[in-house]
Amino acid sequence: MEAIRSLRELPGLAESRNFIVPWDDIEADLGTALPGDYREYVGYFGPGRWSGYLNVLIPDIEAAGSELRYQHRSLNALLQEKPDLRAGLSHSVYPEPGGLLRWGGTSGGELLHWRTGGQDPDQWPVVVVGSDAPEEIQEFDGSMSEFMSELFAGRLSIPFMSAGPTLDEIEFKGLTGKASRPRFAIPAVSHFAE
User: Fold this and answer.
1) C-alpha angle with apex 170: 165 to 174, nearest 5 degrees?
2) Of 21, 34, 37, 59, which cross-links 68 as Cys (Cβ 3.0–4.6 Å)?
3) Is the dihedral of CA 189, 190, 191, 194 positive or negative?
4) How is the chain split into domains, by residue range?
5) CA distance 22 to 110
6) Which residue has the higher pLDDT, 63 or 193?
7) Distance between CA atoms of 79 and 59, rounded to whole angstroms?
8) Confidence band, pLDDT 50/70/90 cuts, at residue 103
9) pLDDT band at 38 (very low <50, low <70, confident <90, very high)
10) Residue 98's closest CA among 42, 137, 59, 151?
11) What DSSP element (H or E) covers 100?
12) Is residue 123 a contact partner of residue 33, using CB atoms and an 8 Å limit?
């Protein structure tokens, strides 16, 4: 996966953090497989932020605001509690067919999703939903890592998206401490491979 390789070459992380995730449990809980580049990204980078601008949700960590399943469950619970909110959305939400499943966000408030559907999650396009209005939506026909590579290189044109750092400013900062620990693991066990 060329795009993952290009992300690895950016400043901030010289070698893999070897973040271990119980993928079978995560995917069974979500009811779907997840894209291969996302799984590879999580294993290499683990929890962290790109120059304080972009955050990728990581499964099975204590930091609820950065945890993939927590964000998914919270949105679906809110939509069940307040069904009138669904009417204001310009898109469906996973697990609805073709529904959006959030994988990240920006400091400007844009939400980053996959448009689920089909048999192969590696074919899911990325969908950006604007921060000011849910009808602001743009689809990118590529993987999460391709989207990030294009975004950081300044080759994406999304009119409503907040400006991020330039390629020479981008740096990955891994989360450490309590926020990066696994939610369900025994405290003495590390989620990072030795």
Assistant:
1) 125
2) 59
3) negative
4) 2-180
5) 28
6) 63
7) 21
8) very high
9) very high
10) 137
11) strand 100-106
12) no
Question: pLDDT at residue 27 above 90?
Answer: yes
Q: Structure tokens of 143?
A: 């993987």
Distance CA 33, CA 104 (A): 17
Quote the pLDDT of residue 35.
98
Q: How is the beta sheet containing 54-56 ordered, strand by strand? A: 137-140, 126-129, 111-115, 100-106, 54-56, 48-50, 172-174
- Please give the Cα distance from 175 to 12 (Å, whole number): 12
Tokens of 115: 């448009």
* Residue 77 binned pLDDT confidence (cut-offs 50, 70, 90): confident
How many CB atoms are located within 10 Å of the residue 36 CB?
15
Q: Are strands 126-129 and 172-174 parallel, antiparallel or unpaired?
A: unpaired
- CA-to-CA distance for 19 and 66, rounded, in angstroms? 15
Q: Do residues 58 and 42 lie in contact, with contact meaning Cβ atoms separated by under 8 Å?
A: yes
